Amino acid sequence: MERAASLLPRQVHGVEYGGPWLLGREAGPPWNMVDWEADPDWDWQSAAEDSPEQLVTHWQSAAARSRAIVADALADGGLEQLGRFTNSRGESPTLRYILLTLIEEYARHVGHADLIRESVDGLTGESPPG
User: Fold this and answer.
1) Residue 10: its pLDDT value, please?
2) How many other C-beta atoms are found inside a 10 Å radius of the C-beta of residue 41?
3) What are phi and psi of 109, to 5 degrees?
4) What does the pLDDT read at residue 101?
5) Which long-range contacts (CB under 8 A, 24 or more apart) does 67-74 make?
6) Coil/strand/helix, residue 125
7) Residues near 64 by Cβ (< 8 Å), separated by ≥ 6?
8) Contact between 9 and 47 (Cβ < 8 Å)
9) What φ, ψ does residue 94 adopt, rounded to 5°?
């Protein structure tokens, strides 16, 4: 499926990826109400139906849940504790690895956003004029 160049689907996708799922917890609304088998690309498509304000609210709610989960995990064993899921090799990553992966994924999406912005305004570099 071809997707329009928009920051909104990337924000929704980022919330889904960066949410409690990566820490091996159940995701909250709206993620736990989606039929992922029927619509595996829901996080990319749903932005067309949501306002920017709704998407920011989704992001803020997911970020608050993730912060609470991380705070609880840090208090209950620190960065070297193992995650509550296993990868394809049967390994459980540490909380440190999970958090670094979240930072990497977030940075990747910020880079996508910058590419979209550059395609709109044509300005490049760390401090474009203007």
Assistant:
1) 62
2) 12
3) -70, -35
4) 85
5) 69/20, 69/23, 69/25, 70/23, 70/95, 70/99, 73/23
6) coil
7) none
8) yes
9) -75, 160
Alpha carbon distance 92, 107 (integer Å): 23
Mean pLDDT in order along the chain per 10 residues (130 residues): 55 59 62 82 72 80 81 88 82 88 84 82 72
pLDDT of 2 reads 47
The position carrying tokens 């004029």 is 129
Indicate the residue type of 86: T
Q: So what's the pLDDT on residue 17?
A: 57
Residue 38 and residue 32: Cα distance in Å, rounded? 14
Kind and range of the H or E run holding 94: none
CB 66 within 8 A of CB 23: yes
Count of CB atoms situated within 10 Å of the CB of 46: 20
pLDDT value of residue 123: 80
What's the full length of the chain, in residues?
130
